[in-house]
Design a protein that fits this description.
Layout lengths: L23 H26 L14 H10 L5 E3 L5 H7 L3 H8 L23 E3 L6 H16 L5 E6 L6 H12 L4 E7 L2 E2 L2 E2 L9 H6 L5 E5 L3 H16 L5 E6 L17 H11 L1 H11 L5 H24 L24
Bound molecules: thiamine diphosphate and magnesium ion.
Magnesium ion binds next to strand 5.
């Protein structure tokens, strides 16, 4: 069980999380989802470096609780759009592991027919409007979706994510502003993983914090522990309730951390190994939920190990499926290049 953190790393203590009032069956489900993301992402580095997956990848190992907590706090019909670091959100929103893996392999059976790849995943059938290579643009896509929902009088909330780097691009705040003044049903999430490529967010963020900046736009702002899936769930549920009541958007800054480099193959010389160890050994989102469930008598090591093996088997199946799938037919190269055939299902 190497990739998944084990209990009691060194003398350090994992920070406790409050699971009171949440159905333990849901918590186990969320633990399984975080394990699936961790296992999925842990396989990708080798597949990318060996050339099985073309191009570089932005891994989200360490950030699992942000995605799972948000997906748990919204409804299936809600529409989520995010940034270039998108695999965890895709899986949490319900994109099938086979479909995602095949897309990363560039195969015809992938969710975008093998033509989108890691940064342009999307599957409208599960309300995942996709990742995006333009920093800050995902929030605008979600903002547009929430405007459409409001104009149609639908119970459908948009969720738009961007990073701490994205918080320093002008368009992000244009979207926050218009969502606030038009009271759009939008959940705005800054996934602050402390770095933009190799620049620490504190060196980029005038005004002290992203949350403080957001407060100027006249909407509720919450700074949330993004390594605590239950806190993410609670904040998202409250934001969704507010959006569904017609009261407008909420801004959530999720404080999180990526364990790996900005992208596969990056040389990491801009942060210390002690810093990474500190996050892994005191705030790991999987470990914290595991410990809370064990303390409540809802989980034992045997069941946890079975969950890890199940996640690993799902990933293995996805890799085999992707490997055996055909490449896209060259004749299809000009089809669906604009995304207009994306098909928004009942949102259309
Ligand atoms: C408009 C734009 N500017 C610059 C880039 C190059 N770029 C890619 S990722 C990145 C940093 C993003 O950092 P952050 O928003 O914190 O997201 P993270 O990678 O940490 O998830 C930059 C500057 C880009 N893709 N798009
Ligand atoms: Mg960042």
């Amino acid at each position: 069980m190497t990739e998944v953190p084990t209990a009691g790393v060194g003398a350090r203590q994992f920070l406790p999380i409050d699971i009171s009032g949440v159905d333990p069956e849901r918590l186990i489900l969320w633990l399984g989802e975080m394990l699936l993301i961790r296992e999925f992402e842990s396989r990708l580095d080798g597949l990318s470096m060996s050339g099985k997956i073309p191009g570089g990848l932005h891994l989200s190992i360490g950030q699992e609780a942000v995605a799972v907590g948000i997906a748990a706090g919204i409804q299936p019909q809600d529409l989520l759009a995010c940034s270039h670091r998108s695999h965890h959100h895709a899986l949490a929103k319900g994109l099938a592991p086979r479909s995602l893996m095949a897309e990363l392999f560039g195969k015809a059976t992938g969710c975008r027919g093998g033509r989108g790849g890691s940064m342009h995943l999307a599957d409208a059938s599960v309300g995942f409007l996709g990742g995006n290579g333009i920093v800050g643009a995902g929030l605008g896509i979600a903002m547009g979706a929430s405007l459409a929902s409001k104009m149609r009088g639908m119970d459908q909330v948009g969720v738009g994510l961007f990073g701490d780097g994205g918080a320093n691009t002008g368009r992000t705040w244009e979207f926050v502003n218009i969502a606030s003044v038009w009271k759009l049903p939008l959940i705005i999430v800054c996934e602050n993983n402390m770095y933009a490529v190799e620049t620490p967010s504190e060196r980029l963020t005038g005004g002290g914090s992203v949350s403080r900046r957001a407060e100027g736009f006249g909407l509720p702002v919450h700074t949330v522990d993004g390594q605590d899936v239950v806190s993410m769930y609670r904040a998202t549920t409250a934001a969704r309730d507010r959006a569904a009541r017609g009261d407008g958007p909420t801004f959530i800054e999720a404080r999180t951390y990526r364990y790996e480099g900005h992208s596969t193959g990056q040389i990491i010389n801009y942060r210390t190994t002690e810093e990474v160890d500190e996050w892994r050994s005191t705030r790991d989102p999987i470990q914290r939920l595991r410990i809370a469930l064990q303390a409540a008598g809802r989980l034992d090591d045997e069941v946890f190990d079975e969950m890890v093996l199940r996640a690993r088997a799902t990933v293995q199946d996805a890799v085999a499926f992707a490997d055996e799938s055909p490449l896209p037919d060259p004749i299809s190269a000009t089809r669906d290049v604009t995304g207009l055939e994306l098909g928004l299902g009942n949102a259309r």
